[in-house]
């Protein structure tokens, strides 16, 4: 399983907010913004900071999605 930030990008479009404007106003570094853009792992503190700025819950900006790769050792026999 991995996290998808697609909901965050949709929310920014709904709020008519550019990514750079969002990052600056929310106090998020350009490195963290790049991680979000790549779908990389970020800290819970950063997620909470984003939620506080957007006045939303984590579930409004993050979604758990299945991994693209399957691990045969985890498949039921």
From TrEMBL:
UniProt-recorded name of the protein: Helix-turn-helix domain-containing protein
GO MF annotation, one: DNA binding
Organism this protein belongs to: Anaerococcus obesiensis
Domain HTH cro/C1-type: 20-61
UniProt-listed PROSITE patterns: HTH_CROC1
